[in-house]
């Protein structure tokens, strides 16, 4: 399950905040070094966005134009990704870069990796109302409904497949690589959920969500606190979370003690 992940770590291509990434791609997936970073290719998923991708680990220090990104894509993945409907170029840097000269019409957004120093937080009692999610079809459906409620533009089938994959991963946890999801229930319905993934001492939140009808009651904050204690008990030193830059979520996490670590830029370019 961590085949690509292990290969990319061996290349030295992940910064510390990204070291809990894993890719639910088929066994024919491959990644390879390029001068600008690392490229991904999944022949059996030519239309899946991360099936054909480039991560620029060596981001230029000056503005880069959209046509330059297109040339990088065409040179590195053009022949492999002949059926791709989207181009994806990803780059990151320790300091936020201003790419104001990107060609108009390219869809792009910025996310930020936030870091929390667990040792600086006083230990708190675990919330006994929060439980780990066990693998079952009923729980998969309840997870998917919670995530779909947060993103109405994505079909429920997508979330069913994703949640099944995540819970399958959670049954294979070990000390080096793992993932676990926790939830708050109302009867048998998940009303708030959050995951945590880890690689060694590096831990990261994954997919925090609350049903819209239950927001504003502190459920997400309770889950975040619970996972902090889980990570502390597991000997984690730092824990990370990725969220959209300048969003309400970023402001909430910063009030909780998270600080900026790395910026991530994603560009999707129509082929």
List the helices and strands and how they pair.
Blueprint: H1 3-11, E1 30-34, E2 37-41, E3 52-56, H2 66-77, E4 86-93, E5 107-117, E6 131-132, H3 137-150, H4 156-170, E7 177-186, E8 189-199, E9 202-210, H5 219-233, E10 238-244, H6 248-255, E11 259-270
Helix pairs in contact: 3-4
Number of helices: 6
The SS-based structural class is alpha+beta
Q: Report the major sheet.
A: 11 strands, mixed
| Percent of residues in beta strands | 25-35%
State the order of secondary-structure elements, H for helix, E for strand.
HEEEHEEEHHEEEHEHE
User: What spatial order of strands do you see in the largest sheet?
Assistant: 1-2-3-4-11-5-10-9-8-7-6
What CATH architecture of the largest domain would you give?
A: 3-Layer(aba) Sandwich
Indicate how many domains the architecture comprises.
2
Task: Give the rounded overall mean pLDDT.
Answer: 81
Taking the alpha carbons of the first and last residues, their distance comes to: 30 Å
Per CATH, the class of the largest domain reads Alpha Beta
Low-confidence stretches: none
Helix content: 25-40%
CATH superfamily of the largest domain: Gcn5-related N-acetyltransferase (GNAT)
According to CATH, the fold-level topology of the largest domain is: Aminopeptidase
């Amino acid at each position: 399950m961590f085949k690509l992940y292990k290969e990319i770590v061996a290349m030295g291509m992940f910064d510390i905040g990204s070291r809990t990434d894993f890719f639910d791609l088929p066994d024919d997936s491959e990644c390879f070094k390029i001068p600008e970073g690392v490229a991904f290719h999944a022949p059996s998923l030519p239309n899946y966005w991360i099936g054909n991708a480039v991560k620029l680990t060596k981001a230029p220090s000056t503005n880069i134009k959209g046509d330059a990104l297109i040339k990088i894509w065409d040179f590195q993945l053009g022949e492999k990704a002949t059926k791709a409907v989207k181009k994806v170029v990803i780059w990151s840097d320790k300091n936020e870069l201003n790419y104001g000269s990107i060609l108009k019409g390219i869809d792009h957004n910025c996310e930020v990796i936030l870091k929390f120093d667990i040792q600086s937080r006083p230990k708190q009692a675990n919330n006994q109302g929060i439980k780990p999610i066990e693998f079952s079809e009923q729980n998969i459906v309840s997870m998917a409904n919670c995530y779909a409620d947060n993103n109405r533009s994505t079909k429920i089938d997508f979330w069913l497949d994703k949640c099944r994959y995540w819970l399958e991963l959670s049954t294979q946890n070990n000390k080096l690589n793992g993932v676990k999801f926790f939830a708050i229930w109302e009867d048998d319905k998940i009303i708030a959920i959050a995951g945590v993934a880890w690689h060694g001492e590096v831990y990261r939140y994954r997919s925090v969500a609350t049903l819209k009808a239950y927001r504003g009651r502190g459920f997400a904050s309770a889950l975040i606190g619970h996972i902090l204690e889980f990570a502390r008990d597991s000997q984690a030193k730092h824990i990370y979370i990725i969220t959209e830059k300048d969003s309400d979520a970023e402001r909430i996490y910063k009030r909780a003690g998270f600080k900026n670590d790395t910026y991530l830029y994603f560009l999707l370019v129509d082929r």
